[in-house]
Amino acid sequence: MKLKLLDELKNTSAEAPLNFTFAGVQFKFTAKIKIVDEQTLEELTSKQGANDKEIVRDLLIGWDEFVDEGKQVPFATDTLEEMLAYPGITARLSVECINAQYRVQEKN
After folding, report:
1. Which residue, among 69, 71, 73, 63, has the nearest Cα to 96 in the 3D structure?
2. Which residue has the higher pLDDT, 103 or 28?
3. Quick check: 76 and 61 in contact, CB under 8 A?
4. Model pTM?
């Protein structure tokens, strides 16, 4: 039996509120992270030469509430690449992209 619920997961994302400081600068926004199956995650994280930048590029698909100098910052590849120039930011985003794959919300 093929579960239709699992098919829905193929096009979903998780929202992850981030609020961290790197070198005294605060970053606060809600990351939108693509949800992938275990095989895809394994391929991303175990391939030889895999690095945090690749994980972030593949899984971070957007953000909301990202403000810089009082203005909303729309998600764009060039802006993401600016952030990925700093290993501390890259590592934090990579960890969140992977953690989001395991985060389950309980309903009462």
Report:
1. 63
2. 28
3. no
4. 0.89
